[in-house]
Design a protein that fits this description.
The complex is a heterodimer. Chain A has 14 helices and 17 strands. Chain A has a 7-stranded mixed beta sheet, sandwiched between helices. Chain A has a 4-stranded antiparallel beta sheet with strand order 13-14-17-16, with helices on one face. A two-stranded antiparallel sheet of chain A has the order 1-2. In chain A, β11 and β12 form a beta hairpin. By secondary structure, chain B is an alpha+beta fold. In chain B, α2 packs across α3 and α3 runs parallel beside α6. The model of chain B has no long low-confidence stretch (mean pLDDT 92). The chains are: A alpha/beta, B alpha+beta. The interface between A and B is medium-sized, with 19 and 20 residues. Bound molecules: pyridoxal-5'-phosphate. Pyridoxal-5'-phosphate binds next to α4 of chain A.
Amino acid sequence: MTRTQGYDVEAIRKDFPVLARSVAGGHPLVYLDSANTSQKPRQVVEVIERHYLEHNANVARAMHQLGAEATAAFEGGRDKVAQFIGAPSRDEVIFTKNASEALNLVARVLGDAGTVGPGDEIVISQMEHHSNIVPWQLLAERTGATLRWFGVTDEGRLDLDDLDTLVNERTKIVSLTWVSNMLGTINPLDVVIARAHQVGALVAVDASQAVPQIPVDVASLGADFVAFTGHKMVGPTGIGVLWGRYDLLASLPPFLGGGEMIETVTMERSTFAAPPHRFEAGTPPIAQAAGLGAAVDYLSALGMENVAAHEQAITAYALERLQEIDGLTIVGPREPVDRGGAISFALDGVHPHDVAQLLDSRGVAVRAGHHCAKPAHRRFGVQSTTRASFYLYTTEAEIDVLAEAIRHTQRYFKVN
Amino acid sequence: MDVDALYQEIILDHYKNPHGAGLREPHEAEVHHVNPTCGDEITLRVHLDGDTVADVSYDAEGCSISQASASVLYDLLVGKSVPQGLAVLDAFSEVMHGRGQVEPDEEVLEDGIAFAGVAQFPARVKCALLSWMAWKDAVSQAVSDPKEQ
Ligand SMILES: Cc1ncc(COP(=O)(O)O)c(C=O)c1O
């Protein structure tokens, strides 16, 4: 019962050996924590393994055959990512450590370029991951700019009622998540981007939860910067991506200083390489870039429309099954409309950590806590929630195990 | 991992009916501690009468383990002298960090022995220790900076 239009879920699960294992107590693993990090298919792991075992060398600066192979693997990863997100140029793809570093990079270099100052405003939202809050707070503190934010409606949607006053002629930067990692909400970026550009503000998008599950075309999106992270899209940890419009990147100062990011260095001063290398100081994540290239190959072979359709179907099924449980309250949109595959919920009488512990004792891996979105939790008057999140390999049978394990938790804690 | 080892009946009882909960006067020190990974929080006050722990009052938000641990702390420490209380804290921490290898002394820890199972769940050790670390902090403030009430 888990055939999605485009691919056979049971068949592709075989690409992810970890999904076939069992955990303590002999329960088959039910991995519902993919918004935290996704599992990795053999195809990705094998590319990384082969890179280290057969092609390992440093990039760019090694004048031997292995150096050329490693450089090809690294830059080949860049080509694949650029194509995957519809970047007009490969030189617009900057490799970072993760999405957090990508967002910090934007905030830091925009600050150094004097983009904001006292009296200027930076706009974010109440549903951001801490990675898209703290860098802007720091930038506001450094520059004297004011941080403002979109609220969230009771349903868990971005509150656009005050769009025209919130984003105004003082606004210099708008930074917004595409898909909320806590509420699951998919935001109407087009409306916000149009308004931001109308007032001359730059737009950064945190696409950490979007790129893994919906087709992304940065050229048609129209934002100025897009950040995401490799490990949530069947790729390795240790690599993230910042995409930026080339003319903009070319006008910005460097982020970190070091090897590879220079044009020339004297003892007095340096000049800097063109993007993307200007923003990639030091030995980059080489094997990780090769692995990320394999990850986008994997996703492309499935087809991102099919991945999105599966995510939509499995989320709709889970919303239905979870809402059948008395005492369970979903925090975030309850309809499978403009909604990604993360469902956060509260269970009457049982704290989220205890829910997660009981689910774990049944082999069900979920996340409990604030999911790096404390302001979003506060908005809904909760300190923490339990979050189940789904990906391209999640089956309806796994959702059924989740629902039964939640009922078991209620019995264990003698609620209802 | 056997969750029954974690969720002892005693722990669930303290969770449902916490002893000594709520913030009270008088107090000489108040602290607020947070477990940043999970967000559990406690505000805890200590009232000393000379060298005696006359009251520990608290407002805690968190899981069953952290809540029950605050309740047990209240039972164990109120009425003891500060050095005796610190000795109980040491005994409790030793069990918590013992990875299940340290046999708890019921004479010293009373209901606290129920937490021995927590030591097998590294992710939950911090939950059990939250109120204890808060108490240690509050007591050291109360002792070093006795405020006139
Ligand atoms: C929406 C969102 N933004 C940013 C991040 C940060 O990603 P990373 O930890 O890889 O930097 C995450 C994931 O944790 C996320 O879900």
